[in-house]
Amino acid sequence: MNFRIRITALIIIIGTMSGCKKADDSFVSTVSARTILDVAYGVDAKQTMDIYLPANRRADSTKIMVMIHGGGWTTGDKSDFNT
């Protein structure tokens, strides 16, 4: 099962990166990177997500990636992907 999780994550990452484009150098931003851990998205204590915001992000051009670990909401944990 760990192999399936890694393959799924790799497919999501490759798909996300293929849609990226070179940043516009004419705009300089000083927004720093930010990590927000354990944000609740449901009523269960296990329903939490981590949000990673890149430095110099812009609402009109920053791409996003949503990673769902695929445990069928019965197995696995977001910490499985810490490495």
Structural summary, described in words:
The protein has one domain. Helices cover about 20% and strands about 15% of the residues. It contains 1 helix and 2 strands, in the order H-E-E. It has one helix at about 1-20, and strands at about 35-40, 50-55. Strands 1-2 form a two-stranded antiparallel ribbon.
User: Could you tell me how far the N terminus lies from the C terminus, measured between alpha carbons in angstroms?
Assistant: 16 Å
Count of beta strands: 2
As a percent range, the share of strand residues is 15-25%
Low-confidence spans: none
Q: In what order do the strands lie side by side in the largest sheet?
A: 1-2
Keywords:
83 residues; alpha+beta; two-stranded antiparallel ribbon; 1 helix; 2 strands; 16% strand
Blueprint of the fold:
Blueprint: H1 2-18, E1 34-40, E2 48-53
Antiparallel strand pairs: 1-2
What's this entry about, in short?
Helices cover 20% and strands 16% of the residues. The chain has a two-stranded antiparallel sheet.
